[in-house]
Automatic annotation (TrEMBL):
Name the UniProt record assigns to this protein: GDSL esterase/lipase
Provenance organism: Citrus sinensis (Sweet orange)
């Protein structure tokens, strides 16, 4: 792995942290908000494995047991033991779980579709799955997900007009009334890190990644989307799989045991993402853009797990071996078979209490952690503007008209 950031980059990212957390965290307490909650009839989601509900398993390879064990009691195309944040968002609106666009069996798109796939990036990845060259990334990067959405929008209405599956397609007006959710960006940087790219060069690539993201959001706006819910990326330096590629020098770890330079990179991306969202608001004042700081929520689970009822946050619940007892190894990952000391094993069991764990497989979160994250974003404390998902159809001017300034208590 290349030399990690210089002191100047670290100092710069310190200021990034201050800027990204500078907005006040209000507590929404007015009945005016409840009376004006949004009635989203559909969700269209774009992202990676953090919100994939069956895309990559339908297109490339199955996600095996014990994935899905906690809630679905069977593999359900999700990289977790149960539900994801996007599932809890759908539940909160009274909507069914999103069917993956790529899944042709038993799907129902009447209330939206999920274009996210595990391993997706914003930009075109250098190594595309399937590959025999070690790690690879999804061929369904964000531009492709946008193309799939555009095709879905037109074809779904053709089917509604004369197809026998009309009831499985969203109504035409749903496309302008839906919530468009995004959770993507993490893999753009893990791909570069794993390719041993100098971290200074990775920093330099961030504007291009952000521009590509903004282009896709603008395209959806131009197609009629008006409500956007955008998650930032999580603390890359806290995931067990990253430790395989990071130096073990104690000076590079923070008090939570996470790799500081990688988290600083994530925070730099998040700062630029937030700036892009601000520019999108200015460019499209008739739309509502909500930036959601899931980084801070996720990091709190690694820094103070006991405070929230969790334990061993850096250790994968489902995995095998690895370095420093993180229970993660590329030779035997969760749900797959592998060779360990010449012996074939199958990693088909998990820890005893997934409900008390943060990391499910060394890369993704447990259902319990996902539920915690959803509960936090539902308060509005981690959003800009400070609203929960059920208010995400309101533009900032509309929120002020509802009396936000007078009716919100600053915690």
């Amino acid at each position: 792995m290349q030399q990690l950031p210089s002191n100047s980059i670290s100092l710069f990212c310190f200021f990034c942290m201050l800027l990204s957390s500078s907005y006040a965290k209000p507590r929404i307490s007015s009945p005016a908000f409840a009376a004006n909650s949004c009635n989203f009839p559909a969700i269209f989601n774009f992202g990676d494995s953090n919100s994939d509900t069956g895309g990559i398993s339908a297109a490339l390879y199955p996600i095996n047991w014990p994935y899905g064990q906690t809630y679905f009691h069977m593999p359900a195309g999700r990289f977790s033991d149960g539900r994801l944040i996007i599932d809890f968002i759908a539940e909160s609106f009274g909507l069914p779980y999103l069917s993956a666009y790529l899944d042709s069996v038993g799907t129902n798109f009447s209330h939206g579709a999920n274009f996210a796939t595990g391993g997706s990036t914003i930009r075109v990845p250098d190594r595309i799955l399937p590959t025999n060259e070690g790690f690879g990334f999804s061929p369904f990067y964000l531009d492709i997900q946008l193309s799939q959405f555009m095709l879905f929008k037109s074809r779904s209405q053709m089917i509604r007009q004369r197809g026998i599956y009309a009831s499985l397609m969203p109504q035409e007006e749903y496309f302008s009334q839906a919530l468009y959710t995004f959770d993507i960006g993490q893999n753009d940087f893990t791909a570069d890190l794993f390719a041993d790219m100098p971290i200074e060069k990775i920093y330099a690539s961030v504007p291009d990644v952000i521009n590509s993201f903004a282009y896709n959001v603008k395209s959806i706006y131009n197609s009629g989307g008006r409500s956007f819910w955008i998650h930032n990326t999580g603390p890359l330096g806290c995931y067990a799989f990253v430790f395989l590629y990071s130096p073990s020098a104690p000076a590079l770890k923070d008090s939570a045991g996470c790799v500081k330079p990688y988290n600083e990179l994530a925070q730099y991306f998040n700062l630029k993402l937030k700036e892009a969202v601000v520019q999108l608001r200015k460019a499209f004042p008739s739309a509502a853009f909500t930036y959601v700081d899931v980084y801070s929520i996720k990091y709190s689970l690694f820094k103070e797990p006991e405070k929230y009822g969790f334990e061993l946050p850096l250790v994968a619940c489902c995995g095998y071996g690895g370095i420093d007892k993180y229970n993660f190894s590329l030779n035997a990952v969760c749900g797959a078979s592998g060779l360990v000391n010449g012996t074939k094993i199958v990693v088909d069991s998990s820890c005893d209490r997934p409900s008390a764990r943060v990391s499910w497989d060394g890369v993704h979160f447990t259902e319990a952690a996902n539920k915690f994250i959803f509960d936090q974003i539902s308060t509005g404390d981690f959003s800009d503007p400070p609203i929960p998902p059920n208010m995400a159809c309101h533009r900032e001017g509309q929120l002020k008209a509802l009396g936000q300034n007078a009716l919100v208590n600053i915690s």
